[in-house]
Design goal:
Order of helices and strands: EHEHEHEHEHHH
Strand order of the largest sheet: 2-1-3-4-5
Shape: elongated
């Protein structure tokens, strides 16, 4: 379920500090607010509602499947992606059977991480008129945007 401001919230759990920071940076570049945890206990203590979970397959206190099971028992329903540097067909099948929607093999490029994050986040309904995108497309000129909208309104009236 998207947060009130519709900025997606992602919880990333990984005991490797380099992987954790890289996944965090990639998710943030995708426009997400990110919370991180270095182990299962910290993930279980994380506050907030999350739209997506990225959980390392092997953690020091719980494995990823155990952590996902514990989160589900607490009512967390966000889609979950397993991450691991050691993935084979059997492990992938096991993780999916345990409830993970997808598996991300590390290391992964920022582009791959962004694609998998976007793929599994709830998609908000597009705004009828997106002022930010429109201003971006015309160089930020609010007067030009107003004029274009007026022209569009006149054309609609003629139709």
């Amino acid at each position: 379920m998207p947060t009130k401001d519709s900025t997606p919230r992602v919880l990333i759990v990984d005991d490797d500090p380099v992987s954790l920071r890289f996944l965090e940076a990639a998710a943030m570049q995708s426009g997400c607010v990110v919370a991180t945890a270095a182990d299962g206990a910290a993930a279980l203590a994380a506050n907030g509602v999350f739209d997506l979970l990225l959980i390392d397959r092997r953690l020091p206190d719980l494995d990823g499947v155990e952590l996902l099971r514990a989160l589900r028992e607490r009512g967390v329903t966000a889609p979950a992606i397993a991450t691991s540097a050691e993935i084979d067909a059997g492990a992938s099948t096991q993780l999916r059977a345990a409830g993970f929607m997808d598996v991300l093999e590390k290391p992964a490029s920022v582009r791959r991480i962004a694609r998998i994050v976007r793929q599994h986040l709830p998609q908000p309904a597009p705004a009828l008129l997106d002022d930010v995108a429109a201003l971006d497309a015309i160089g930020g000129d609010t007067n030009a945007l107003r004029a274009l909208r007026n022209l569009g309104a006149l054309e609609l009236e003629e139709l």
